[in-house]
Specification:
alpha/beta; globular; 4-stranded antiparallel sheet; ABC_transporter-like_CS; 235 residues; 10 helices; Rossmann fold; branched-chain amino acid transmembrane transporter activity; binds adenosine-5'-triphosphate
């Protein structure tokens, strides 16, 4: 479904991605692990068209999207939820969700998708008239993901959804990811929280210095001594 081939990204003189390659198959949750500055966020930004790569290729469902503008990529069903849950704090939950439908012509379809998000996330339904800024961190993260669902993703790019959340809330965010995946949406999940990510993912990659140094089924990565030492808090 998604294939990244030999991707290079520069920020001025900084060579942030160095020939990075990875794939996401239809129906998969794939975790992208790595330390601060490894290149995880840069990878997602390149896939969603926010950054122009200096080399390599990005294919989505067989089409070369490497140089497509962000709105064209979103319209194909590749939807990015950036780091830091950017909900509109002055807008209500309902209005935030409606914004997710801005590329969708069929307004009845947008309403159906919003109701689907409320079914999946009853806490948001209870708060539909509340302003985004008054929600807890976990609820804001759910709202950011809910808004992406209204856009109609076939592949969801999630950047550190667990950041700054308490363990119980992290668990419910990961449960949401599993639920979204069970309904047929593929997910590329960037996480520093390797334990949580490898629990929900089918496969994973480890990025170091802008390239994938390790990849495999999540069950194998959980047992891999290099992953255990570097990302799962020692042996
Ligand atoms: P984090 O978890 O901290 O977001 P990351 O793995 O997502 O880490 P990136 O944010 O993709 O890492 O950063 C990869 C490299 O690119 C780092 O060396 C970083 O310093 C550099 N970088 C990122 N954004 C910029 C920018 N706007 N200008 C210059 N360098 C940047």
């Amino acid at each position: 479904m998604l294939e990244i081939r030999g991707l290079d990204v520069h920020y001025g003189g900084v060579h942030a991605l160095r020939g990075l390659s990875l794939t996401v198959a239809a129906g998969e949750v794939v975790a992208l692990l790595g330390n601060n500055g490894a290149g995880k966020t840069t990878t997602l930004s390149a896939v969603s068209g926010l950054l122009r790569p200096s080399g390599g290729a990005i294919l989505f469902e067989g089409a070369d999207i490497t140089r497509d503008p962000p709105h064209r990529i979103t319209a194909r069903g590749l939807v990015h939820v950036p780091e830091g849950r950017r909900v509109f704090s002055a807008l209500t939950v309902q209005e935030n969700l409606q914004l997710g439908g801005y590329l969708v012509r069929d307004q009845a379809e947008v309403r159906r998708r919003i109701e689907r998000v409320y079914d999946l996330l009853p806490r948001l339904a209870e708060r539909r008239r509340q302003r985004g800024g008054t929600l807890s961190g976990g609820e804001q993260q759910m709202l950011a993901i809910g808004r992406a669902l209204v856009t109609g993703p076939r592949l969801l790019l999630l950047d550190e959804p667990s950041m700054g959340l308490a363990p119980l809330v992290v668990a419910s965010v990961m449960e949401l990811v599993a639920g979204i995946n069970a309904e047929g949406t593929s997910v590329l999940l960037v996480e520093q929280n390797a334990v949580a990510a490898l629990r929900v993912a089918h496969r994973g990659y480890v990025i170091e210095n802008g390239t994938c140094v390790l990849g495999g089924p999540a069950a194998e990565l959980r047992e891999d001594s290099r992953v255990v030492e570097a990302y799962l808090g020692g042996a």
